[in-house]
Amino acid sequence: MELRHLRALVAIVETGSFTDAAIELGVSQAAVSRTLGSLERILGVRLLHRTSRSLSPTTAGVQVLARARQLLAEADDLVREAVTGHTRLRIGHAWSSLGRHTPEFLRRWAAGHPGVELRLVRTNTATAGLAEGACDLAVVRSEPGDRRFASTVVGHERRYCALAADDPWARRRSVRLHEVQGRTVLIDRRSGSTTAGLWPDGARPEIEYIQDVDDWLAAIASGSRVGITAESTVTQYRRHGIVFRPLRDADPVPVRVLWSRPDPHPATGAAVALLTELYAAAADRTPVSSAAPRCRPSS
Question: Which of 229, 261, 37 is nearest to 149 (CA)?
């Protein structure tokens, strides 16, 4: 099967005749007929009901037509990017995108880079979709462990404790890290910013693992468990029945950007620079605790 087979099918249905399809495709009517016949032989099904006065897709034809349009659109998009350069930048994230910086990042990117469309893609994996090919850059809040990707730290976020709204701790202004040892803590081991290593050996709380931020929020709202998360989650997931309290005496969460080491997107440097600027401006307004270490960019 080739793209020309799919283009012929779509042209026939959209124009309503073999003659008009031939004109649109710039080939003969006989060539259009042969191409459709070849596609039907390849698939082993009839795709069109044809009479002297009309034509319409068969049941199988309707299904093939929908997929054909999707595949042709993706192929056209691929060609457009290859010919004109990278005109789209997909930024993956697993939980909370860029937190409170998300709206400003989108506005400033659109103003400064009108020729590069920006898309945010949520993928709940360790590399936020980068390893899966779902994005060009990824924003993560955990240590990257894949040598295929380079990374740099663009900023830091304070840690918060997520609690049910009727939890006794909800009346407090903050929570200390050692106090959490007596609670059950929910952790997303694939893409979360918290690990058991946050506590010293012998003083770790009971831990349960979940797979997604929505499951995490639902379990916390039930009142039997708590969560530890980065400040960005507080901004992105304000939910009824859940409150967030600052976690005292805990190191902040490094926010990293990942990209493909051998073939980075041309806009990688611009995106990293803008994110670094936004996080630095926020840090100047709200100084990071002196106990919080500064992480160096890595690659």
Answer: 261
